[in-house]
Design brief:
Chain A: Residues 510-537 form a coiled coil. The complex is a heterodimer of chains A (615) and B (550). With 615 residues, chain A is an alpha+beta fold. Chain A has two domains: 2-93, Roll (PH-domain like); 115-498, no CATH class. Chain A is 42% helix and 13% strand. Chain B has 20 helices and 14 strands. At the A-B interface, helix 9, helix 10, helix 21, helix 22 and helix 23 of A face helix 8, helix 9 and helix 20 of B.
Amino acid sequence: QVEQVKLLDRFSTSNKSLTGTLYLTATHLLFIDSSQRETWILHHHIAAVEKLPLTTSGCPLVIQCKNFRIVHFVVPRERDCHDIYNSLLQLSRTAKYEELYAFSYNPKQNESEQVKGWQLIDLAEEYRRMGVPNDYWQLSDANRDYKICETYPRELYVPRTASKPIIVGSSKFRSKGRFPVLSYYHKNKEAAICRCSQPLSGFSARCLEDEHMLQAISKANPSNRYMYVMDTRPKLNAMANRAAGKGYENEDNYSNIRFQFVGIENIHVMRSSLQKLLEVSGTRGLSVNDFLSGLESSGWLRHIKAVLDAAVFLAKAIAVESASVLVHCSDGWDRTSQVCSLAALLLDSYYRTIKGFMVLIEKDWISFGHKFSDRCCQLDGDPKEISPVFTQFLESVWNLTEQFPQAFEYNEAFLLEIHEHVHSCQFGNFLGNCQKEREELKLKEKTYSLWPFLLAEQKKYQNPLYNPDFSPDLTLLEPNTVSFNFKFWRNMYHQFDRSMHPRQSVFNLIMSTSEQNKQLEEDIKELEAKIKQRNGQSDVVLEKEQEQTAHPAPVALKSPPCFQKEQPPMPMNDAVRTIEGSNTADNRYSELVSEFSKAEPAVVSLEYGVARMTC
Amino acid sequence: MEFAELIKTPRADNVVLHRPFHLAVEGTLCLTGHHLIFSSRRQDNAEELWLLHSNIDSIDKRFVGSLGTIVIKCKDLRIIQLDIPGMEECLNIASSIEALSTLDSVTLMYPFFYRPMFEVLEDGWSSFLLEQEFELLSSVTNEWRLSCVNKEFSVCPSYPPVVIVPKSIDDDALRKVALFRHGGRFPVLSYYHKKNGMAMLRSSQPLTGTNGRRCKEDEKLVNATLRSGRRGFVIDTRPLTVAQQARAKGGGFEQEVHYPQWRRIHKYIERFNILQESFIKLVEACNDQSHNMDRWLSKLEASNWLTHIKELLTAACLAAQCIDREGASVLVHGSEGTDSTLQVTSLAQIILDPRCRTIRGFEALIVREWLQAGHPFQQRCAQSAYSNSKQKWEAPVFLLFLECVWQIHRQFPCSFEFNEQFLIMLFEHAYASQFGTFLGNNENERAKLKLPQKTMSLWSWVNRPEELSRFQNPLYEANSLVIWPSVAPQSLQLWEGVFLRWNRPSRFLEEAEEERIHIIKYNKELQARVNALRRRLAQLEAEDGEVQEE
């Protein structure tokens, strides 16, 4: 515990700050300011801690979080600062899974609730929903003991005609043994999205089993003879891989394939792209042109567009041409996961529901071995393995929700919450790099699943505009991917910088109004029932009531004023209507005034600190 | 001149109309004196397009064999294409459109011919009189007076006949001050902040020249707006160097020695051709669907449009801050005081004054701070982003103001009585309209053209209940506070409603907006029903009680 610590405003040029007390707990860093407002930061969320050179007011400490929160403390004594710094370094870097928050987190669920929570998402059920097994596709037990591929799940779906020797042979010809398996099956078109890793083709190697495997996939689609093979990497990267004995499919060796590169960059490019983006967006006193040119040079939106373009290409191949598609990148757990899951989201409205989105993440990301642990740096590991691949997926989904405001059951808060927990290590779902590892960690016994907690709070994550009939079952969502449709995701990258957001949120207002509407509908039913009951007692009143239904206004005139009291206060949205931060000092033009009012520092009147409107 | 002389081919059949995101339609094209009319031949769902010639910004023609194609680019940024069979017809039509869309004389414009199909409930020409404004002001302070010194437009040709000035300054002094200010635009009251009695004045630059000329009456006038012992701020919308250079041409700025109670702040706001170029570049960038991400972002950046937005918003916030926070009076001017000055004073009022965020109040603001204040609409809005004319007086000054309002609207979506459509409608009518409101460059010209007698006012139409309902913001809850927008680049956005309006399918966004409105309306219905049911139940209970008592 350290007192008299200052929390600086990240963007203020006038060094506005809050003074308060800093506490370190086993799991969180907590700051309570003088007005008792609390800021909690989970140690696992801390991406970097930095001690800046000593200033006259104390020792500055900057903490960067994985959820893009940046806090800037000034600790009065250097010794304290040093202690905090060291403690945070230790606490934020965990060497062993067992030390992660999820293993100590106890949400007061009993054991059967815990088990039920883990059973909430059942992938076998999901494949049945898609329509497999069927005449062409079957469950394979080849990987039941993780013998063929350690990073795949136990249960895999493959074409019926792909025998075990073909599977084994193909897996030997694929990087990390990740042979082609089913990711999504489109019932109506009888076409499949399959995924794998790159072939070990080098410059000339070929593998008959692998060729058979692809043929089996294309034959499992009765409506189209040819299939696409999508290499999601830039062609240059794929060619470079040939020198290392890897590479891409030679069209001459495989019959009826159409080969396609789509050019999504690798994890290292994405990591530095995000870093540049954050540098730009974190600049104080940023000009519009610096922001736009920074946005451009970071390449971030270009990458998001590339991912979504690839997904659109894939979804169209399925929906328009009824062609099956095999997708891979290098190892088939980053770009492949992005593209397969986004294409499925475009093809199947189920994934645009809250439950369906959980299923999609469980299937294409968790079960197929996206390396959450490495990519999100859950344990102290190789910084070169860190990459915002999943963040990009969420951002692509967000872009779709912006274009199709009525197509999604969930809202932006849901995406942000998932992002929060991918990094929080509070729940077991995203720990580890693959299913095998998760089983070894006994996560299902020792930790809790995130999904039941999100479902329990479903109301928060519902999109009030959602229209389930927006796109019937399997009609394709066709987003416009012209560049101007992609926007900077302010609510993700500046989630905690409140002065940047609209001071009144249409979304929250609509959400609470829609919530209130449901309540009012209930009230009406109840009132009508009560009135009916009363009327039952006397038939005379019934007639009167009907009369009144037609003319409710005169009743109002007749009714004595005391009825006002009986109306419970409307649960109206005080919080929603709050206009906060209506405060010039929050906004960057304050610097101009400081020029000429140095003698008398601008006084922020409380009146505008928080202003409430009542309805 | 007869329009018929200009119309060589009044009608062409088998014309095909192409619009982005619509299927091509075949139909008949007719030209009238003021409209281009296209009507599809299908009886079932006959589609008609009426386009004002004055809305046409540029026209291109090209031929493939005998099939001619005309591409029409409109001032509201829409682009349509017409395929016209027959080379001669096509040439005739193109040249007619060209002639009709570039008529020289104002009195030939459509507003002089337009006859409304609706009943005029309230004549918009007299809806917003400065006298009414002054009445409101007199109820809170008696420090100001209405002056008719400009009754004949002789003191300042670009000012309205009546203006509000400090009470202690008489008309003779005003005449002297007018000689000391560019174009005679002496300082007048733009806004009075009731909360603390501070005033915002606007004027043009003082004519100090190189030898530092001064005008005692001018000093007296501006000082009359200060509380004793308090300072005021002059916000000059030019950079210091430009203001200094202006002295060589007889202009200048208020010098400290002569205005010791005033602090001068130079807050540069871009003007004229720079703005117009920026506008053209932005529209070009938005219209090219083939740009990859890097090119799009660099084009967006190169247009500088959002920079202008940010600078303007910052200046307006600064003026508002001086008044509300520093408790100081403010004088705003640039050179002529007809462009950036008005942008700043009107935006500051949006920030400070809740009344300006209502429909009626916003209309009054536009009348007061733009039309009556002498923003030269006819010059500035003569052409839009597609024209090649490149006249130096054309500039999207008013559009930039509307976009700033939109940016604030986005940050405070419940604090405005009007919606985005209202702002877009004003943009359209400023550039091409059947109403006379935006014709002419100042009240003087409008009076000479007899616009109130000969044309219909936009406000007569807009303020009819049927039309108003389209422009109301269902989320509006009166907010009496000062609203400070964020000017961080991350908080600013491209105004898609104007710039991407014709470039992307908008069905899903519109449907979502309808759903939002539906939710709000449904809520009101439900609340009314619940209240009615409650009353009825209570009444039944009361009756039962009576029965039992008996």
